[in-house]
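The authors assume throughout that readers already know how a fold can be written as discrete tokens. In essence, backbone conformation is discretised, so a fold becomes a row of integers matching the chain in length. A single example would do more here than another paragraph of explanation. For illustration, here is how one protein appears when written out as sequence plus structure tokens:

…
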Amino acid sequence: MSETHQYDARGLLCPLPVIRVQSLVKKLPEGDIVEVVGTDPGILHDIPAWCRVHGHTVLSTEQRGKDYYVTLKVGEKS
């Protein structure tokens, strides 16, 4: 059964949110969900681009007030 994990990247600037999410995802099984929240609007582009390269699926991206959210599903490890 998959689990959902939250990662708070608020206050971090590119490339740190992607680096931290990458470190988290390496420890997770395929199918788990990661919800990332950040204050750097770059995560709306950077995390989906990283997901495409590494085989993860972006489920949603959105802005809520001053925060930006990216939800991804961990893909198969290569």
